[in-house]
């Protein structure tokens, strides 16, 4: 069973809870918070989540905030993280196939919960194609 990390800020809290409920029978999910609708600073939750993917405690990660941008930008500060902002399933698929993305960021204020689930399911079930894409992925990290 794949181990998945998940986190959200207050804007993504309800989506996080919905996704956890929908995915709990297929994946082992580690929830890094937030745990309420109270306003929070998303980096406080993103950094531990990204670290857990970076160090191998979790295979993939899901991040949710209002636009998806803040959590994606923060996660991508980690050298071994490739976090893709996805607002449609095809972007999630291509981010895995071509970029070997290991985290996905969702914009809770712009997509329905059902679409968020569809995006996450594509992200979690699509494999990296390797080949010519591997050379490009190898050039992403600065170190």
UniProtKB/TrEMBL annotation:
InterPro entries: RpiB, RpiB_LacA_LacB, RpiB_LacA_LacB_sf. D-ribulose 5-phosphate binds at residues 9-10, 66-70, 99, 109, 132, 136. The keyword Protein biosynthesis does not apply. Belongs to the LacAB/RpiB family. The keyword ATP-binding does not apply. This is Ribose 5-phosphate isomerase B. GO terms for molecular function: ribose-5-phosphate isomerase activity. The active site is at 65 (proton acceptor), 98 (proton donor). GO terms for biological process: D-allose catabolic process; pentose-phosphate shunt, non-oxidative branch. Keywords: Isomerase. It comes from the Bacteria.
